[in-house]
């Protein structure tokens, strides 16, 4: 418990000290939402039931923020390695799974804060307000979306030593994960071979759950989204802990 | 009681033997210095004793705990100051130490008190809330030493604690290490600085290519080579200097570049004239002459046979510095 809290606390201090990171990380998704959202809905006249396209897109943009911000935590593991700080943690009498859990919760918290800020921003530009219970449910989904992604980042970071390599690796992962999550357009009419990629992508369930919570549209179901995300979280966390223990030094 | 004991400790990295069958015994309260050229295996030994890497074969015990099987026990018993910085640059001095204290589960009140005490001790109490990014090399080192001591370690590892520090800071840290020793802490120290080793260590192990080639007190080490040394700088010559100096009372001659001659012998002062006579006979011009009582430098050179490389950062550190610079620009 103590270890987890300590590691989490450090992530929080670092996050709030780097204010440019908070603003910077919100910029791109926000412009995506405003420009793409407006542009697409006027160009293609997409109708999503009673929702405008921009309403449909908003949970996707939140998913995008969660994805980017979560993967960034793995990056901080690599930096810790580069700067030698990881050694300080590795020689302390603490369990490595505690360290991973602390990092993962820290990363999820920062992702969550950014996602909430985005949610507030989107209300400012006139996206309709979800119900209170919808917002609560969306918070749960935000956490469950970011947790497996953060641990995935940590798992990769444990195996790698080179920040540039990690960045490339993550870009390589992020693009297909993002495009195949249904964040910006529904993917129910995909050909079969692409469908498997869609089903294997944790972000798909996260975006679907967020959409269920915020605009009450869902392709799977809330229960299914929750279950799958919890399984993803558990499995990836175990893998990350194992890799972290094996490869961190 | 033995604070540290290794038996045939061996570490192989990708087929290269980094550390070969090391047998070390460090008594409680003793200060052992590990000396040797870069790549001799000093840091590898420390990394094994700190549980960061596993030995390929052999055993190592720290405070009677096995470094492979009882990692947590070992980790709670030791403190480490690494060769390269291991501070979080974004955190303040206080936060860095506090983080450490929390990891080692030191209760809040004790932690607060001890941190203030340690920061005062290393002269950083006025910088306690400054971010480490803004610290100079010496301040970082001092902060790391303070951090390494927070949890009352029984065995303290210092991997080149004064590397790259100015003489004042060096002196400051030496005084501090001496104080710790007086308080009975067991310390293992690696260094390139012979003064440091001579000043501080009870025992010195000289390493080369992964093996310990000499292990004794500084006094005995100096006595054991039991020789005065005459150092001659001579002009270029075609003569074989070894044949020229084939005198019965000379124990050993080491020649570098056929120019620098180190002659080991007893009672150097009284033999100088005879040696110069010999050189004169062979028309070898002697440019300078020095008689040395052995220092630890001489001991070191006697065993490892080459000058100490100055502490150029290896590639990894170099990269790290570059990354730091880049991050600062961002």
Secondary-structure topology with pairs:
The complex is a heterodimer of chains A (249) and B (330).
Chain A: H1 2-17, H2 19-44, H3 53-82, H4 85-90, H5 96-124, H6 132-159, H7 163-179, H8 192-199, H9 202-215, H10 222-247
Helix pairs in contact in A: 1-5, 2-3, 2-5, 3-5, 3-6, 3-7, 3-9, 5-6, 5-10, 6-9, 6-10, 9-10
Chain B: E1 2-13, E2 16-27, E3 31-35, H1 42-49, E4 57-62, E5 65-66, H2 71-77, E6 78-81, H3 93-103, H4 108-121, H5 137-149, E7 155-159, H6 167-182, E8 186-191, H7 194-200, E9 203-208, E10 211-216, H8 218-224, E11 228-234, H9 241-244, E12 250-256, E13 260-265, H10 268-281, E14 286-292, H11 296-304, H12 315-329
Parallel strand pairs in B: 3-8, 3-9, 6-7, 7-8
Antiparallel strand pairs in B: 1-2, 1-4, 4-5, 9-10, 11-13, 11-14, 12-13
Helix pairs in contact in B: 3-4, 3-5, 4-5
Summed up, what is this model?
The complex is a heterodimer of chains A (249) and B (330). Chain A contains 10 helices and no strands.
Description of the molecule:
The complex is a heterodimer of chains A (249) and B (330). The mean pLDDT of chain A is 86. By secondary structure, chain A is mainly α. Chain A has helices spanning 2-17, 19-44, 53-82, 85-90, 96-124, 132-159, 163-179, 192-199, 202-215, 222-247. With 330 residues, chain B is an alpha/beta fold. In chain B, 38% of the residues lie in helices and 28% in strands. Chain B is built from twelve helices and 14 strands. Chain B has helices at residues 42-49, 71-77, 93-103, 108-121, 137-149, 167-182, 194-200, 218-224, 241-244, 268-281, 296-304, 315-329, and strands at residues 2-13, 16-27, 31-35, 57-62, 65-66, 78-81, 155-159, 186-191, 203-208, 211-216, 228-234, 250-256, 260-265, 286-292. In chain B, the strands form three sheets. Chain B has a six-stranded mixed sheet with strand order 6-7-8-3-9-10, sandwiched between helices. A four-stranded antiparallel sheet of chain B has the order 2-1-4-5, covered by helices on one side. Chain B has a four-stranded antiparallel sheet with strand order 12-13-11-14, covered by helices on one side. In chain B, β12 (250-256) and β13 form a beta hairpin. Chain B starts with a strand and ends with a helix. The model of chain B is unreliable at 308-318 (pLDDT under 50). The A-B interface holds A 2-3, 5-6, 9-10, 13-14, 17-18, 80, 82-94, 163, 249 and B 50-53, 71-73, 75-76, 78, 80, 82, 84-91, 95, 99-100, 102-105, 131, 147, 319-320, 323-324.
